[in-house]
Design brief:
- By secondary structure, this protein is an alpha+beta fold.
- It has a single domain (5-112), classed as 2-Layer Sandwich (Heat Shock Protein 90).
- Helices cover 30% and strands 27% of the residues.
- A four-stranded antiparallel beta sheet has the order 1-2-4-3, covered by helices on one side.
- The longest helix has 17 residues, at 5-21.
- It is globular, with a radius of gyration of 14 Å.
- The termini are close together.
Length: 115
């Protein structure tokens, strides 16, 4: 399988944009990557507002927004994470999130290595 570089760049852009948008003043965003024998793992972490546990199962749904009022103020359509998940899955990968309200979130995606 070939990697669509523009699509993966869009994934990174969306994840970093969200990490910045939903961060606290003076917060940080960290992007990391590591190689395993079978895959490449990329993570985007922030020290922002976090995501309530009850919302995590739905954040990759089209048009789903965790905080409707805050989302209206910050802009966005609720499509970004849905698009991210679609792109990653189209490349044979997976995406997960770990989050703690008030402490931040880490989005991690894996892509299989090309053979």
């Amino acid at each position: 399988m070939r990697i669509d570089e523009a699509a993966i760049a869009q994934v990174l852009f969306n994840l970093v944009e969200n990490a910045v948008k939903y961060n606290k003043a003076g917060g940080s965003v960290t992007v990391g990557a590591r190689e395993t024998p079978r895959s490449i793992e990329v993570s985007v972490s922030d020290t922002g507002i976090g995501i309530p546990q009850e919302d995590i199962p739905r954040i990759f749904e089209r048009f789903y927004r965790v905080d409707k009022a805050r989302s209206r103020d910050l802009g966005g359509t609720g499509l970004g994470l849905s698009i991210v998940k679609h792109i990653i899955q189209a490349h044979g990968g997976d995406i997960t999130v770990e989050s703690k309200p008030g402490a931040g979130s880490t989005f991690r995606f894996t892509l299989p290595k090309m053979s």
